[in-house]
Design goal:
alpha+beta; single chain
C-alpha cells in the first residue's frame, strides 16, 4: 500500500517522537484506517530512512562500573527448584529466611536406609504440551509419572498414592536426578 506524502511525513514525526513499530502500526490503523502488518511497517520505516529510537539505552553487561550485571538466565533445574520451593530463590527472599534450617534432617544426605529416588526419562514423549516425561520411584516406594512442560515446569500426571507429597529430601533428590537424567538426554 502506498502512503501519501502527508502520511509519510506524519509517520516520520511519530518515529522522531520515539514511537516503536507497534505504535506506528496502531496509529496507522487508528488515524488513517490503513491496516499493515508489523513487517510492512518495518519496511516502511526502512524505506523512509527513519531511525527508531531505543526505549532505553542498553547497558553493556560486561561493564561493571555503577551498573548492575545482567541477570543470569535460569536453566530447567533452577526454574523447577523455584517452582517446588527447593532453593534457587532470589537474594531478597534469602534475606527473609531465618538463619537456622527449618528441617532437622540433612537434605544433602540420601534418605535413611540407603534408599534413593530413581528417575527414568521416556524415550518418546507423547503428552501434548510436554517436552519430556518419565517415571519416578521415591525412597518410600511411591511411584509416579512426571512431565516437564514447554516452560520448563515439572509436574506429576499420576502418583500411586492419593494426596502424596514427597518429603523434602526426596523432593530435592528428585530434582537432582531429574536434572541429571535430562542433561544426559540433551535437555
Amino acid at each position: 500500500m502506498t502512503l501519501t506524502p502527508e502520511q509519510k511525513q506524519t509517520v516520520a514525526t511519530w518515529v522522531a517522537a520515539g514511537d516503536n513499530l507497534s505504535a506506528v502500526q496502531r496509529k496507522l490503523a487508528d488515524q488513517f484506517k490503513i491496516s499493515m502488518t508489523y513487517m510492512d511497517v518495518r519496511f516502511l520505516v526502512d524505506d523512509l530512512n527513519l531511525q527508531l529510537k531505543d526505549a532505553a539505552p542498553r547497558a553493556d553487561p560486561t561493564d561493571l562500573k555503577g551498573a548492575k550485571a545482567a541477570p543470569e538466565k535460569k536453566g530447567l533445574l533452577e526454574k523447577a527448584k523455584e517452582k517446588l520451593g527447593l532453593g534457587g530463590a532470589s537474594e531478597a527472599a534469602a534475606e527473609d529466611e531465618p538463619e537456622e534450617a527449618e528441617f532437622d534432617e540433612d537434605l544433602s544426605a540420601p534418605p535413611a536406609g540407603g534408599a534413593r529416588v530413581s528417575v527414568a526419562v521416556d524415550k518418546v514423549t507423547l503428552i501434548p504440551g510436554a517436552v519430556a516425561s518419565g517415571t519416578v520411584t521415591f525412597s518410600d516406594g511411591v511411584t509416579g509419572k512426571w512431565i516437564v512442560d514447554n516452560y520448563g515446569r515439572p509436574g506429576f500426571t499420576e502418583i500411586s498414592r492419593k494426596d502424596y507429597r514427597p518429603n523434602p529430601a526426596d523432593a530435592q533428590m528428585f530434582m537432582q536426578e531429574l536434572s541429571s537424567a535430562l542433561q544426559q538426554r540433551g535437555f
